[in-house]
């Protein structure tokens, strides 16, 4: 009796203490008690009694049939959620190519309960997956996918992997299909064994697939899977190969599936960098053999390539690049720089075959078409490829290694916005001058429409033409120029072959010194006199000059060619064609003062862009020679010299219209009279089809 009385007294005191507690405290203690009871029941039973309710609830929530064919466990151990299921399967949506989204002989895991309630991504501390198969697919319209669970008509969301700290995989495969991105892959994970609660080997995987119609294979693994047990990092090794293109990725990941804050190094190499970007469906210019290294990490939705450096062909490249998918459209942003760019490596940028350039050098830019040499590339712009992405790229070059023209400090901003490509501004220094240009390529409609606006600031003539025999010492003349054209076509050749516009080169006042300048004028009397008097190196005084062409449907006609010097007026007619790249024009010099032994005959320039020719023996000169012979026979030897007499009646040019780059119709003599010796912006055939040579016998008939 006393004992039972003592027990009752304790119960009364405990009840009184409970009643004295504030109501919130009592409620909290009840909740803790209930939770502990649930935890205890689950821990003792391993939650096996929840198997059928789990299947029903998950089937309802996911709107996919969920089944567990073997043992089932769901409990707290002690805080993390322990989930274990044998012969576990989740059915796929009806339109998928496989009946099951996921199946596994065994799935054993420890899951963070906090991440299930508050986290955007589930955190898995441990995953043991055996005999697993995952099937991930996008629908053909790219509106739905198999891993967006719930309503089958719900718009598909991007795939977000759970954050897995440690994993053990055995006989597991992953299948991924994306019809819009044209990407398919199958990955196989090798069996991994453990020893004394630690991995006895690396987590290895291999696979194959195709992307944008190009096949690839890959292999790799996590080399330090035990490091995550103590909060370390996984060491990743991955190699992907496609023919001669090889990409190696090494480094560390925070977790087995954690890419954020990863510290990776990429090495890419192959015969042509364009083939690597083909896997992304991105069109870039072809290159010669390349090798690049880069730091690689993922930040949010961006893949960042930093500290990028390497070589392509005989040129270097460094900088950074970011690849992202804003609004589900691929965007490439880059800031790149080259210290020395070899001129051969420039060729593929505008459509030349890099293999031909590699094997033949500059000669590889020339092809024979229809029996004639062609130098303008006809590689078509890859219209479908540039529709797949946008770009914003800044590229600078310090020096371009070129044998004939010194070019340096090039810079271009390349922007691609829904099939409209612009190179603006595109600038570089050349021979002491500066070239600024804006080029736009609009591929939104067919045919492609390209606009060219290229401007050359005043450039020292001696430095620009030094490779062609013009001496810098004694040459003070400059050259400035502008090209404004619009063309239609998918390649550079086609665009220019259908172009319209104007090309103008202006020579302000200055001097030019070249050893054979008089040969170009064919003033034989002056040339011989200077040669024997030792005055050959005296500079030629240029008052002003204009070499201009009007381009119509790809044919450029002189409009005008007019150069006024101290002693001569040089004029020209004819032109060239972007269609077949033929050259056919002539120019001549008429003296302002009387001169003996003057051939007074035009110099013809013919042939092709890739193989130009100069003709200094013209029918006119032969006719003059015949006249001289006739006069020598019927008269005296002195009389034969009259055939080579230049009476010096050339009219000086007004420099105002010349320096303004005006058309031929606007050109004037110094006296203000219209000039009739510089053409009318057409070829030598007039609108009526008559040869312009018949109008002025001083010029060769051309075109």
Topology:
Layout: H1 2-20, H2 23-45, H3 51-62, E1 66-68, E2 72-76, E3 81-91, E4 100-111, H4 113-117, E5 123-130, E6 133-137, E7 163-164, E8 167-170, E9 172-178, E10 183-189, E11 194-195, E12 198-199, E13 203-211, E14 214-222, E15 234-242, E16 245-253, E17 263-270, H5 273-277, E18 290-299, E19 302-312, E20 315-324, E21 330-342, H6 343-346, H7 354-360, E22 367-369, E23 372-374, H8 383-386, E24 389-401, E25 407-417, E26 420-430, E27 433-442, E28 449-460, H9 461-464, E29 478-488, H10 492-497, E30 500-507, E31 510-512, H11 517-521, H12 524-533, E32 540-552, E33 555-565, E34 568-577, E35 582-591, E36 603-608, E37 611-615, H13 619-634, H14 637-640, H15 655-659
Parallel strand pairs: 5-7, 5-8, 6-9, 21-24
Antiparallel strand pairs: 1-3, 2-3, 3-4, 4-5, 4-6, 9-10, 10-13, 11-12, 13-14, 14-15, 15-16, 16-17, 17-18, 18-19, 19-20, 20-21, 22-23, 24-25, 25-26, 26-27, 27-28, 28-29, 29-30, 30-32, 31-32, 32-33, 33-34, 34-35, 35-36, 36-37
């Amino acid at each position: 009796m006393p004992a039972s009385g003592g027990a009752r007294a304790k119960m009364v005191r405990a009840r009184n203490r409970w009643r004295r507690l504030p109501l919130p405290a009592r409620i909290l203690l009840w909740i803790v008690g209930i939770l502990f009871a649930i935890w205890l029941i689950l821990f003792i039973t391993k939650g096996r009694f929840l198997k059928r309710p789990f299947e029903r609830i998950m089937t309802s929530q996911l709107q996919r049939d969920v089944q567990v064919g073997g043992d089932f466990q769901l409990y707290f151990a002690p805080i993390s959620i322990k989930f274990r299921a044998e012969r576990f399967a989740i059915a796929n949506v009806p339109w998928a190519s496989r009946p099951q989204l996921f199946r596994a002989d065994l799935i054993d895991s420890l899951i963070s309960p906090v991440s299930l309630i508050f986290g955007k991504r589930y955190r898995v501390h441990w995953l043991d997956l055996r005999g697993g198969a995952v099937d991930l697919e996008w629908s053909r319209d790219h509106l739905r996918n198999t891993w967006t669970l719930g309503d089958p008509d719900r718009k598909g969301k991007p795939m977000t992997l759970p954050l897995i700290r440690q994993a053990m995989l055995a006989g597991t495969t992953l299948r991924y299909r994306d019809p819009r991105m044209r990407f398919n892959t199958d990955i196989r994970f090798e069996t991994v064994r453990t020893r004394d609660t630690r991995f006895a080997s690396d987590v290895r995987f291999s696979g194959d697939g195709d992307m944008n119609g190009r096949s690839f294979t890959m292999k790799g693994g996590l080399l330090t899977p035990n490091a995550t047990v103590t909060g370390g990092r996984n060491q990743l090794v991955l190699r992907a190969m496609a023919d001669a293109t090889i990409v190696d990725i090494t480094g560390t990941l925070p977790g087995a599936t954690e890419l954020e804050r990863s510290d990776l190094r990429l090495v890419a190499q192959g015969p042509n960098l364009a083939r690597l970007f083909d896997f992304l469906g991105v069109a870039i210019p072809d290159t010669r053999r390349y090798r690049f290294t880069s730091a690689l990490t993922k930040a949010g939705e961006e893949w960042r390539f930093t500290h990028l450096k390497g070589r392509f062909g005989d040129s270097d490249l460094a900088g950074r690049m970011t690849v992202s998918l804003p609004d589900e459209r691929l965007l490439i942003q880059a800031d790149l720089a080259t210290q020395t760019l070899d001129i051969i490596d420039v060729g593929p940028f505008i459509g030349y075959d890099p293999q031909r350039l590699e094997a033949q050098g500059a000669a590889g830019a020339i092809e024979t078409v229809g029996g004639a040499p062609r130098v303008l590339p006809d590689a078509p712009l890859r219209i479908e490829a540039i529709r797949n992405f946008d770009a914003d790229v800044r590229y600078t070059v310090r020096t371009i290694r070129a044998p004939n023209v010194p070019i340096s400090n090039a810079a271009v901003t390349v922007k691609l916005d829904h099939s409209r490509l612009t190179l603006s501004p595109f600038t570089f220094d050349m021979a002491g001058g500066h070239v600024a240009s804006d080029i736009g390529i609009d591929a939104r409609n067919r045919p492609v429409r390209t606009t060219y606006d290229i401007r050359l600031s005043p450039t020292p003539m001696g430095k620009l033409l030094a490779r062609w025999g013009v001496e810098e010492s004694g040459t003070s003349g400059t050259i400035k120029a502008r090209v404004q054209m619009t063309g239609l076509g998918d390649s550079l050749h086609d665009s220019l072959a259908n172009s319209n516009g104007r090309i103008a080169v202006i020579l302000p006042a200055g001097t030019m010194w070249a050893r054979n300048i008089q040969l170009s004028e064919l003033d034989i009397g002056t040339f011989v006199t200077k040669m024997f008097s030792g005055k050959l190196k005296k500079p030629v005084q240029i008052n002003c000059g204009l070499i201009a062409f009007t381009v119509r449907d790809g044919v450029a006609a002189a409009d005008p060619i007019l150069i006024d010097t101290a002693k001569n007026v040089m004029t020209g007619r004819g032109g060239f064609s972007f269609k077949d790249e033929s050259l056919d024009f002539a120019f001549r010099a008429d003296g302002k003062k009387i001169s003996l032994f003057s051939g007074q005959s035009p110099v013809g320039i013919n042939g092709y862009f890739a193989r130009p020719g100069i003709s200094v023996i013209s029918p006119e000169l032969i006719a003059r020679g015949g006249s001289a012979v006739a006069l020598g026979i019927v008269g005296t030897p002195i009389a034969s010299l009259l055939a080579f007499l230049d009476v010096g009646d050339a009219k000086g040019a007004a420099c105002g219209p010349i320096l303004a780059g005006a058309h031929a119709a606007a050109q004037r003599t110094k006296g203000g009279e219209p000039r009739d010796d510089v053409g009318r912006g057409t070829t030598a055939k007039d609108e009526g089809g008559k040869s312009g040579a018949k109008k002025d016998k001083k010029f060769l008939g051309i075109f």
